[in-house]
Amino acid sequence: DTPGLRDIGLWGLESQDVEAAFPEIQRAAxxxxxxxxxxxxxxxxxxxxAVEKGQIAGTRLQSYRQLLQESLDxxxxxx
Length: 79
Fold this sequence. Notes:
Blueprint: H1 15-20, H2 23-29, H3 46-52, H4 58-78
């Protein structure tokens, strides 16, 4: 329990920082077509292909995408 604490946010994290929290995504990302792939809808995304093949759990990709969106939202709020 954390009295007085309403929420915890992700301030100042870049997409590669979020990716580092998901080692299986980070490993697969090395095979993406584009170096700046965010594993959303980019063509040639090796992470999406790994999920489709069952090599990465779809729930992990969902969690990654949610944290990525939260970090981008926080970045917009603070800039």
